[in-house]
Amino acid sequence: MERRKRRFAGHLWIFILSLIFAVQANAQSVRGTVVDEAGEPLIGVTIKVKNNEKSGVLTDIDGKFSITVATPAGILIFTYVGYSAVEMKADASKPMTIVMKEDSKFLDEVVVIGYQDVRRRDLTGSVGKANIDDMLKAPISSFDQALAGRLAGVQVSSGDGTPGGTMNIVIRGNNSLTQENSPLYVIDGFPVEDPTIGASINPNDIESIDVLKDASATAIYGARGANGVIMITTQKGKVGAPQISYDFNAGVSWVSNKIKMMDAYEFVKLQSEIYTTADLTGNFGYFQTYNGKTYTLEDYRNVPQYDWQDMIFQDVWQQSHNLSLTGGTTDARYTASFSYFDQDGVVLRSNYNKMQGRLGFNVRKGKLNTNFSVNYNRSVTTGDSPSQSSYSGMNNLFYSVWGYRPVTQPSVELSSLVDNIQDPSIETLNDYRFNPIMDLQNSYRKKFTSYLQFNGFAEYEFIKGLRLKVSGGYTTDNRRNETFNNSKTRYGYPGSTNRVNASLSTSEKTTWLNENTVSYNTVIDKKHTLSAVAGVTLQESQYQYNSESMIQIPFESLGMAGMNQGQFGSSTAEKEEESMLSYLGRVTYNYASKYYFTGSIRADGSSKFDKNNRWGYFPSMSAAWSLSEEPFFENIKEVIPSAKFRFGWGQTGNNRIGAYDRYALLDMLRASEGNYTTSSGIAHGVYPINNNVNSVGVVPRNLPNKNLKWETTAQTNIGLDLMFLNDRINITTDWYDKVTSDLLFFTELPLSSGYAGAMRNIGEVRNQGLEFTINTTNINTKDFKWTTNFNISFNRNKVLNLAEDVESKTTIATFDQNFNATPSYIAKVGYPIGMMYGYIYDGTYKLDDFEYIGGNYILKSGIAHYSSEVNTQPGYPKYRDVNGDGVIDSSDRTIIGRGEPKHIGGFTNNFEYKGFDLSIFFQWSYGNDILNANRLMFENGFNKKKDLNQFASYANRWTFDNPESDIPRVSSSSSNLVFSSRVIEDGSYLRLKTLSLGYTLPAKTLKSMHISRARVYVSAQNLITFTNYSGYDPEVSIKGGGLTPGLDFSAYPRSATFTFGLNLNF
Amino acid sequence: MKTIKYIVILLLCIGAVSCNFLDKEPYELTPETYFNNETELNNFLIGVYNPLMQETFYGNYYPLYIAGGDDLTFYQRSTPYNSILCANANSATADIMTYWRTLYDGINRANMLLENADKNPEISQSLRDRVKAEALFLRSFYYFHLIQGWGDVPLGLQSAQSVEGLSIPRTDKQVIYDQIIEDIKNTISYLPKADAQTQTGTVTQSVAQGILARIYLFRAGEHYRDNKASDSNTQKYFEEAKYWAEQVKASNLHGLVSSYSQVFTDMCTDQYNSTGVRESLWEVEEAGNRINSANYSAGRIGNTLGFGSTTDYSASSTYKNYTGMKNPGYSYRFAYASLKLYDMYENQGDTERGNWNIAPYEYEYATTGEKQVIGRLYFYGKRPEGLTSVDGMPCKDYTATEAQSVNKTRNAAKYRRELEVVTPKNKNYTPINFPILRYSDVLLMLAEAENEVNGPTALAYECINMVRERAKLTPLSGLSKDDFREAIKDERAMELCFEALRRWDLIRWGEFYTKMNEMVSYVTRPGWNSGHTYAADYYKVTPAYVYFPIPDWEISTNKAVKQNAGW
User: Which residues neighbour B169 within 8 Å (Cβ) at sequence distance 6 or greater?
Assistant: First the structure.
């Protein structure tokens, strides 16, 4: 059954103007077929003659009908549950074709649940349906960017504000600790694991998005269903005259928030605490004597100076175009679309550009129904993520932007900071500051992604209700990354090891899928509805990755084209294959739309696991009870026309690990690959015996683990759907309990084993939660309509055990080498995963804590100090001696923050008044913390680094003149290089995410221009954010993942966008 | 119904055909498919040697930031580096973690090779024996470094096989000592003799004997850092140290190069004992420049620890391909010699070693253009008589009143980039080898052990005086046992400074904490550059510094391990 919900609100009524009164003459027979918009025959449609409604007929299994009407012909009325009634003049001269459209009543929405579509009223699982119309009001390039806050239980966030960045979608909390928690995407039946591809579909091509949340719904996707499933259905051709639509929007983006840095005066004041007096007044000091003038601090007030943020942020344009056309007959339908999106980033020289084309055909011949579609997508991302370098955070953009000094010594031209690639005052070995403007303007970074997907199916109905569907798909995912560092960039400047260098990497992933299903539907005695589906699916992927880099390229002006002229740098080649074979089955039964039962099972076999653990079995069952159909409900049916209770249980799996993770593998020592910053890294270099630089060393890379198997999630769901006041208020509420066991957990290993990490099945995590959604139509008059959607979800995540009697596991969130050896996150039994870990900050040591003896401050006895700090002084950071043993050492670290929000949600209000429509959408997250690692470097003097600017807040640091301050003084003590509650901040926020105002021009004025509909609108994104967070934006997590949420270091700032646009339909 | 039958058959077929559909073997090397021939064994052995050259070990961090934290050295920057060297380490200090990791990587690789070397019996027995002996020796050497750094450590004599059960408690270091001493003794007969190979990057019988002496000497001093009295074993360990050092001497394969500086010149110029005298027993091999070759076999000796220009010519098309004075190679010069070391040489009149280990001159740079080197400016009294030019450039003197000559805290110049022969010179990476074991060290160990066992005998004097005579110093005689011991200490400092040995010597002599803290006031003495007084903070170690902190990573993953006291 191909029933599709319509996208646009307008109803296409067919009116027959001639009303014929009863002048009865001869009777005649009228024949015809009733289909839905997809051309699917509708079975059991009631056909009556207007003004003679006592008699009527029903359409048969092929949607055909035959009715006898009086001559001259009267009006026929077609009615069908869930569809808008159609009136049409009877025409006996030829067989009639009637297209019925689904109406938009909440309970009659079609929900796509995998291998089957059902009406919401028949649903037994927990499935959220996104409102595409609302989402399209935001100026977005992919649907996931507008999904946040739209659905209860679906947490959508982006790591930072990078244009074209992929969103992290987490459904009902994190199951997996180290592996992907992103849901499975199923696009027109084709499963896609990579969220980049899953989200790449043109939002304007999407017919519907259904999010399968509980196991009874997702178990049919078995081993890949544990993180939830996002079912995306694309638009199919529509029966009728060709329709063309064109959407355009353009707008401007700007950075929504800047961080205040120290000005020249405060900066120099800080330097005077870092430099020795001799250096300060010497030839290169800030207080030097230059041109006969001896400079003092006061001379730096209001001098010309730089704010580097102002120089790298820009207000930028974006534009998007969408063109689509559709049409066809009941036998053949077509759809085609093209879209183009171009967005500059607010950071200099960053851009995201996307082009997409799509074609779809549907041909029906007799009992055979076929569909074919092809989708091509190409995107180009320009610029680097500013938070990507994890070996050294100092290589990241904002370290330089914030750290570059605002002012120079009198003898140094201020403009030399901008003109030179490096500030000569920087100690380049331990400090990687680099002229951020010059680097951005000269670094060439492009990522090309193209994605081609062919999809098709053929379905044949053998006997009534029994269908065989054979579908197949083939996708290729090609990526190319180009990097060119010329002589004015951080990695290519003349002092760099590699000089002018370039690298090129390409990857191709091809996947084919074949699915064969048999389904059977029947209704027995008009009360027992039974349907069953069974099938087998096969999928195989090949992945190949190659990269090469060239160094010391002589002619940099040629760019990538001159790459071959350099010296060989390094190359890599990787190849992977994986396959999956699955069997699936589902039976659903309902009795009189009152009692529903569903049971499903899927067996998955995956090449990622050893023979003994290869197969996983994922059962589910669910039931629903429509209370409102019971006799005892009769009395309140006026108020509550519908009430349904749902229960479901099921098991699902997660297999998101590398294709060969179970094998022991060897690695070759050579070239530049490998470093110790990742858990699986090996150090580079090879031992050159007898100065032989061409030696090759071979070493083990990882431990074998034949026991690797699926991570299994068992989930129970209880839900209640209530409708009040004739569809005016719809409430859906769900409670769930998910336990994920045998976690696929990339754990750090004791280094004494010779290995740093391994993929294991250990531990158990529980997610319990409550979701609540309410949709209301507050006012619905002819001219004014006001609807509201409100949703809120609470998820409580808890580690149940970590195996081997381990109480806790800490994680190092790598972002800079100064902090890459110290854990900052902990997973502890009884607590949520992703808790922040460190010392409790008790402010600074105050003068009272010391005895002043012989010109020295000696800490009073009984006051604990940081153990590896020899000489604690006033103003040094003071941490709490949690275990009370008199010293502060690593055993005093404890939980200092939580990454998981207490609740998240969204609140949408839509208003329509005559031609105007207004949409206001708020989205929030409450109760999560952020580890603001920026402040470790920019609010503590960072180890007395010279000439490193700091956040303006550091002006209030501890000094003898400001002895009550709780911001640590300038010092180089190792106690500054630890994580503490000082840098943990509340990450709660409420955001006015989308605000859009549109006006639909009156149809009359458009008719002469052959335009059927025209709407102009303005829309704003991320306009206001209410938060206490001190960084750029509270929606931040540069590491993502369940274990290390909410880490902020040099994240790309979020932009606010204002657009205007136009929708035209012809 | 017929159709249904067909469908069922169709579905079953798909299932049946695809039995092997789910078997996907990796496109990568695995241990199961390796260890088949000589080349594969040798390449795996290179992997066991590899930790030595890595930056995390001798390639950079170890001799500078980790073992470099002694009383002869200081970090020449006012902004400290988080390290042992700057006395601001903690259990999260990255270099300590990577050093620990590097050592255990080497141990696991050695274990794996030992377990698989005999997989193919067709490979000649002698090759397999030699490969196994080298692997076993290296495993023991890595364990010795672990003991020196951390004391009791987890001991694994088999390669890790499974992700389970990796939480191994710390084994008493005495047990590990027994193990590694026994293992090294067993390797000796399978190792090549020192004259059987020209290069010094791999181990020989002499190396094994010399390292045994080093291990026994350190073991003899272990009681100091545990605040225990010496016991009957102490004497035995000195005897053993003497025995093994004497074996090296008795081999008659080794001697001292007549010029001290030539030993290090060889290391900088990619030569092995160029005079034919095998003074250098074992060096860490570094090679290339990370420019001509993709193989990253170059290290940072000379660049971080060592002497070079403060102007970088590696980007200059004119100068980058020069060697010698025209392009001395860039050095950060992090390691400076303390005034204490300077005074030792001055008091003994030791110019042979003093003027090599502590820079006697600075480069004179042009003031315009690419600021190329135009000559040498010698510190007061340091210019060798009659030396007026090098590489065609003039050698001049600073005048006596100039601060450069008054300030005597100068660059540690044992490793000089000026001598590098590989061009173009990289700014940061050098082919300079690092000495692990030299014959003068063996002689001094022998003298020290002999003195402890038998007092200052003729043998003891013979050994120490060989070293002194090469340094053109007067021979010692007529010392008491205690005076002889003190003389050995100073001699080791002057002979072996900046070779990652001093710190361990201080610890085994039970003097580390006191000697380090004495340095705090040393920085105010005349001659200590007033711009380097920040170094006082780098000597303020706590008593806990005789051991390193167990890295946080290990503590949090290995539940059986407890942290060292004071960290």
Answer: B154, B560, B561
Question: Would you call the peptide bond into B154 cis, given omega within 30 degrees of 0 as the criterion?
Answer: no
Give CA B66 to chain center in angstroms.
10
Cα distance between residue A1043 and residue A1048, in whole Å:
14
Instruction: Name the token pair of A441.
Output: 């303007």
In chain B, what is the greatest distance between 2 CA atoms, to the nearest angstrom?
114
Angstrom distance (rounded) from CA A344 to CA A353? 8
Which residues in chain A have their CB less than 8 angstroms from residue B94's CB? 817-818, 820-821
- The single-letter DSSP state of residue A59 is -
How far is Cα B84 from Cα B96, in angstroms, rounded to an integer? Answer: 8
ipTM: 0.93
Shortest CA distance from A671: residue in chain B: B295
Q: Which of B449, B534, B457 is nearest to B492 (CA)?
A: B449
Would you call B29 and A668 a contact, using CB atoms and an 8 Å cutoff? yes
DSSP state of B63: I
Non-local (6+) Cβ contacts of B514 within 8 A are: none
Of A567, A867, A977, the CB nearest to B566: A867
Over the stretch B192-250, which tens digit does the pLDDT of each residue have? 999 999 999 999 999 999 999 999 999 999 999 999 999 999 999 999 999 999 999 99
Tell me if A264 sits within 8 A of A305, measured CB to CB: yes
Q: How many beta carbons lie within 10 A of that of residue A241, not counting itself?
A: 8
List of E strands, A525-566: 528-551
Residues of chain A contacting residue B82, judged by C-beta atoms under 8 Å apart = 818, 943, 974, 977
What tokens appear for A553 in the block?
A: 């390229």
Closest CA to A195 of A185, A205, A210, A204: A185
Alpha-carbon span B518 to A245, nearest angstrom: 84
Q: Is A436 exposed, middle or buried (0-12, 13-18, 19+ CB in 10 A)?
A: buried
Dump pLDDT digits (tens) for B308-366. Answer: 999 989 878 888 889 999 999 999 999 999 999 999 999 999 999 999 999 999 999 99
> How far apart are the C-alpha atoms of A45 and B168, rounded to whole Å?
74
pLDDT tens, residue by residue, B129-165:
999 999 999 999 999 999 999 999 999 999 999 888 8
- Comparing alpha-carbon positions, the chain B residue that sits nearest to A429 is B332
Distance, in Å, from the CA atom of A792 to the CA atom of B161, rounded to the nearest integer, reads: 48
Distance of CA B523 to the CA centre of its chain: 27
Sign of CA dihedral B551, B556, B558, B561: positive
Hey, what long-range contacts does A106-111 have (CB within 8 A, 24 or more apart)? A106/A723, A106/A727, A106/A730, A106/A775, A107/A642, A107/A723, A107/A727, A108/A81, A108/A82, A109/A5, A110/A3, A110/A4, A110/A5, A110/A208, A111/A210
Helices B205-220 and B232-250, axial angle in degrees (round to 10): 160
For residue A629, give the DSSP letter.
Answer: G
In the numeric block, which tokens belong to residue A864?
């604990």
Structure tokens at B183: 């293992």
Structure tokens given for A929: 């913390």
